[in-house]
Amino acid sequence: MRIIVTIGEQRLAATLTDSAAASDLAQMLPLTIDMTDHGGVEKTGPLPGPLSLAGQPEGADPDLGDVGYYAPGQDLVLYYGDQGYYPGIVVLGRLAEGAADRVAATAGSVTVTVEARP
User: For 95-107, how does the pLDDT look when each residue is reduced to its tens digit (9 = 90+)?
Assistant: First the structure.
């Protein structure tokens, strides 16, 4: 499934994986999430409920540009820097080429809208 992540005036394309967690996220759309910056590598914000962990490994080592889910906090995560392996991380999909740099350029807390791409 393709989605659009909007931060301010920036509309960033992304594609979700074929997984139970990504399917659960898609069913929640559209969403508006207040996200904060963590460690200069990711923006995180709370989802309205948990996503399925069926078929997921215990953790993941997300790549720059991944869209993720941090299960212990029920947070959606946009990775724009190098985050190593961590238990509870689920990779949900990928931002389009160059989008991670655009996320990195947004300083501090942001309000993000996530919606299905027509």
Answer: 999 999 999 999 8
User: Which of 102, 94, 89 lies closest to 44 in space, CA to CA?
Assistant: 89
How far, in Å, CA of 11 to CA of 97, rounded? 13
pLDDT for position 44: 97
Q: From CA 47, how far away is CA 49, in angstroms rounded?
A: 5
Q: How many other CB atoms are there within 10 angstroms of residue 84's CB atom?
A: 10
Q: Does domain 2-116 have CATH number 3.40.50.1110?
A: no
Give the count of alpha carbons within 13 A of 88, CB side only: 9
